[in-house]
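Trying the structure run again after the queue cleared.
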Amino acid sequence: RSQLTVKTNGLKFITLKTCPRLSPNKTNSGNNDVIRELTTRRRDASYLNTNYLRQIMKTNEELLSYLVYDKHFDVLDLKLRFYIISQLEQYICHTFFKNHQILPFGSSIAGLGTPNSDLDLVLVPNKLSEDQLSKEGDRQRLTTNLNLIADLLQHSVPYYSHFSRILKARIPIIKFGFELAPIDIDLSIEISPHSVHSGVYMSAYLNHCILLHPCVRDLILLLRVWAKQHKLLKPKNWSTHIVYNGFTSFQLTALVIYFLQKQEIVPPMRQFLSHTSDRFILSRRDVSTLELLSEFLEFVLSL
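Done. Tokens:
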């Protein structure tokens, strides 16, 4: 694994964990041709069938390595996303929104991103008078500004397409795609420079936990694969108007983090926010991902 330090105007420095793609030469399965084919065609969902993988991988550790490491960001995945952020800052924050900055959050920043993860962005002002707008005016200004940004990107900036303006949602957003890579982008706007921090802080906290213990990311990604195959994860296009008995990815991640906090493997979030997490004493440093998986399932059954 390696670490990549990235920089944008809105997010000065953050260190993200990257991992090279699974190499056929680094597996003990003895079937390099099959592994090479799986690695090359990793985006094909049919190749993530656990029963099929079980036939060619002899141990749980080999299966875990493929399921988890296949989903790691590599350096190119990260650079593409921060190239997008830098380009959007150039066109948005240097033109109509000069007192704003773009902050990334979500899986890509938390360290849980996969090559197919969406890029979640929020445009936030550097400062704003508290009594500048009423709530009704806030909503109208949000939709007006999102329409302005969508028009700007759609007609003046290359390589962005498939724009969708979801302006009547509780949090209005515009969705669009990056043509040079399979990356979907969600962009929202915050009126206040303070209200955005929950998502940004949560992403930074998760990234801190992942850097603190090597099993945190592996456990979360493994459980996501397991939950998706058992139809326990709500689909990506799930609507709150539809009854669906399952987790969102964030809900599952929050449950895993709570379990790891109880195990004293990651610090409480309040310690991270108060900048005292360096005093946290990490326990069970040598525990394996498979051990934590077994304990997590027992923990869930005990709830």
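The radius of gyration is 21 Å. Worth checking whether this holds up in the mutant runs.
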